[in-house]
Amino acid sequence: MKKYIILGVVGVAIAAGIFVALRGPSVAVVVTKPQRMTVQAYVAEDAKTRLAYEYVVDMPVSGTLERIQFEVGDDVEKGQIVARVDPYDLQQRIQQGEAQIAQRKAQITGVDVAKPKTEDLDSAKLRVEEMVHGLEISRKALTVTTLNYDEARREFERAKGLLEAGAASASYLDEREMRYKGLAEERAQRSIEIERAQQALDQARLAEQRLVGSVDDNEYQRDVIQAEIAALDAELGMLREDLAKAEIKAPVSGPILEKFIENRRVLVEGQELLRIGDMDSIEIECDVLSEEISAVAPGNKVLIHGKALLGRSLEGTVKRIYPSGFKKISALGVEQQRVKTLIDFENSAAKLRPGTSVDVQIVTQEAPGALAVPDRAVFREGEGWAVFVVEGGRARLRKVEVGVRNENWAEIKSGLELGDTIASELSNDLKEDVRVSPLS
Length: 440
Hints:
Elements: H1 2-23, E1 27-32, E2 35-51, E3 54-58, E4 63-65, E5 75-76, E6 81-84, H2 88-109, H3 118-165, H4 170-213, H5 218-245, E7 247-249, E8 254-259, E9 265-267, E10 272-277, E11 282-289, E12 301-305, E13 314-321, E14 326-329, E15 335-345, E16 357-374, E17 379-381, E18 384-391, E19 394-405, E20 409-414, E21 422-423, E22 436-439
Parallel strand pairs: 1-22
Antiparallel strand pairs: 1-21, 2-11, 2-16, 3-10, 4-9, 5-8, 6-7, 8-10, 11-15, 12-13, 12-16, 13-15, 14-15, 16-20, 17-18, 18-19, 19-20
Helix pairs in contact: 2-5, 3-4, 4-5
């Protein structure tokens, strides 16, 4: 009896071994189930912010600029005073103009009883000649100064070349630069002197005309005085406008990007002072590979990420795509053809500054509410796509139709159901009908 029991046990063991051998070893595989989500296809690029608009603040009138207190990087508000022109000269000219108008009005009352004397005419003529002579002297002085300035500029440029070639010292360059800049200021002052001399000549001629005309016709003299008053009024109006411009205000709110003038100096109208960025015009610039740009269009949604956002995400839209590409060397030294693309976004909360690095994903396709699986679970099968479905403890190859994809997820348009279990990690051991051990 004992002999039969032993034989039975051995038989069962042999049968179990044969059963295990026939089944084969199992393959451990990570499994997952399809889920509903929005799947997006996108072009991912590194990018940076920039200002679309920058404004240069210049001298509104000729005069002495007081020292600008702001520095590069300071933020200013629209309408804030950023620089001042010394108003003293304009104030004096306004007072002089007001006094001249008062004088002309007083002359009108006596125009009918007081005719000009010969010495008055001679004095007026002499005054005009003096003004003409003074204007000629000022013009000659400007010519000489301009010649000296041009020579100094050439010497300065030559000195820079000599310094770069090692044929001159830095002090030699500094001397030439100091002379060049000094003559530039002198030339500006000469221009102001010519303007004033011309104004004085015009007034002297008007005075002479008034005297000559009033010799035989007192009414004509009255008209001349009225014309003088009108001219002085017009000039006074311009001077008052210039005085109002002496306080130079920021055209936009934003940071000071560049400061052209440091110290108090005499400058001519139009001289550049500051460059201010318009923070409301901030945008993102990225360079898209030419082979990917065909999928991008203005208006496409853009997802914005990066360390500068401190874990937050922003959305933007493609604003403009440049019409032509350019060559760019990648970080790996590969020459690439890229196309510059601009992205518009709302910066009021993030407050990103120009030149900030960000990561962008330009959405080219979107499938909301799609049945999706991890992209690594999908593989090529012939000319189509397939996944491994786990059924009855075995891997079953199932062909699927794939839609929108990205590096993480793939839309499954047909071939799977929501409750199916699939292998999310592929391996060489995973084949059709192989026994699997699912891992979650």
